[in-house]
Amino acid sequence: MTAQSAIASSGLIRTDLTPKIASELKADIDELVSGKYSEEIRNLLEERGVVAFRALNLSDEQQIAFTKTLGNSELDYKISKITMDPLENPKAEYIKGAFYWHIDGTMLDIPIFASVMSSRRLSETGGRTEFCNTYAAYDALSDEEKAAIEGLKVVHLFEASQRYVKPEPTYEELQQWQTYQPNTLPLVWTHRSGRKSLVLGSTASHVEGMELQEGWALLTKLRDWATRPEFSYSHEWQLGDLVIWDNTGTMHRATPYPLDSGRLMYRTQIAGDEPFA
Fold it and tell me: Are 49 and 246 in contact (CB under 8 A)?
């Protein structure tokens, strides 16, 4: 694939943004919303992890319609406002965890497949979204490293991710966090396709059956590995951009920005149908 090319004979123009993750597409908005390119986009999403469109400026209705073309059209799609403004987002305190590497849905047996996010208001400073390809990171491990982690299980806790944001919670806050039950997941996810990816992120508490310090060291080492520059892409938002990421094969995080900046993203999601395995 050249740096820029057409996908098959369609009207999609593809530009790969880094060697191992993220491609930018250009296409007619009406054709996108019609679902004309849904198969090509899903295939590219699974191949590259991140698909970006510059300055599409979709309306709410168009974003929902486009999201439906990529998933199960029978689902109740809705837009979530991603902002630190509590007047617009009652869960603003919770999403402060977005500043740390994570995979959405690690507290579930079946995570969401992908997120579709558009930029509606930007911060004057910061506020990029960074992604890393956990398929590529696994593939680049040595055979010895792959053998050493095969079969390991990691306990994921909602509490673990919240401690990044608030290291000293009150007892009442801790009780609230602990209403979410622990979820034990494979460190290496063997997908139905046969491809393998790493399951890491801020909810990863400890490795089952391993001494705590040894397990923490392993999880930190693998996170550092997976987020190396060669597996990563940082999206600097322009107003009206639309970015889709394969949540089952990437991690992501937002870079810091002023919490009172008014930054506002609209997110829709594509339901998953493949359990962690």
Answer: yes
